Amino acid sequence: MQRGKFITIDGVEGAGKSTQIDFICSYLAKKNINVILTREPGGTKLGEKIRELLLSIDTKLMDNDTELLLMFAARNEHIKTKIIPALKRGDWVLSDRFTDASYAYQGGGRGLSIERITFLERWVLQDFSPDVTLLLDVPVALGMLRIKSRIRKDRIELETNDFFNRVRDGYIKRSKQFPERIKLIDASQTLKETSQQIKVILQVL
Ligand code: T5A
């Protein structure tokens, strides 16, 4: 049985991940590829409970280290009980966000030490990594404009534009560090143009 491919999609708020996920799923379905759609934080029963804690505005004053550890606790469960078993079955897995988000949000946004994040990454992932990461890049102001009409914002969405600019810088830094895996996509283009950039990447996977 051939191992499935692991694709992750990431980016700042309002970059258009959810919208492009629909495109990717239908593209892969046309190729008769069975894809499991999942997300982080979350993706498992336990992980979804951790997601609630992480995103609820009731936990506004969460310590930054607690936030990082909860992200990795959910990720550990996600990888071991869902992602790796699916890949071993030969299914493809598409995750809405993954470890790069911890580097961008907790590293870039919160200013936590990159060494500490790398330590957790090695502990939880060992040598496991996505086959490809689609990084949807959009100026923060445009992303915010796209989600402006949302009535209820989660704990992280309530952060400042300065925070999200640091997150964006964190993602760009990651893409320069891992240019083979992380594909930078200009998501400020129209939906169709953005999908076209993604299609070109999927065609050679
Ligand atoms: N987090 C996560 C961490 O801090 N650390 C971690 O390790 C991890 C894994 C999770 C939160 O957790 C944080 C990051 C996040 O803050 P989430 O569920 O991923 O949250 O949710 P969001 O990032 O908030 O995702 P959004 O749903 O807000 O953004 P999307 O999915 O990028 O945007 P989408 O597709 O809903 O699009 C937003 C709007 O823009 C329009 C769409 O139609 C929609 O209305 N749009 C476009 N309009 C014009 N042109 C385009 N090209 C467009 N693309 C989308």
Automatic annotation (TrEMBL):
**Broadest EC class?**
transferase
Residues folding into a coiled coil are: none
Q: Which GO terms describe its molecular function?
A: ATP binding; dTMP kinase activity
Q: Which domain of life is it from?
A: Bacteria
Residues in Thymidylate kinase-like domain copies: 9-198
The keyword Transferase appears for this protein: yes
* Sequence positions that bind ATP: 11-18
Q: Which family does it belong to?
A: Belongs to the thymidylate kinase family.
Q: What is this protein called?
A: Thymidylate kinase
List this protein's GO terms for biological process: dTDP biosynthetic process; dTTP biosynthetic process; dUDP biosynthetic process
PANTHER family with a match to the protein in the record: THYMIDYLATE KINASE (PTHR10344), UMP-CMP KINASE 2, MITOCHONDRIAL (PTHR10344:SF4)
Q: Name one Pfam family in it.
A: Thymidylate_kin
Q: Upper taxonomic classification of the species? A: Bacteria, Pseudomonadati, Pseudomonadota, Gammaproteobacteria, Candidatus Pseudothioglobaceae
As recorded in UniProt, its EC number(s) are 2.7.4.9
- Main role? Phosphorylation of dTMP to form dTDP in both de novo and salvage pathways of dTTP synthesis.
Q: Which reaction does it catalyse?
A: dTMP + ATP = dTDP + ADP
Sorted alphabetically, which keywords does the UniProt record give?
Answer: ATP-binding, Kinase, Nucleotide biosynthesis, Nucleotide-binding, Transferase
GO cellular component term of the entry, any: cytosol
Question: What CDD domains does the entry give?
Answer: TMPK
Does the record's keyword annotation contain Oxidoreductase?
Answer: no
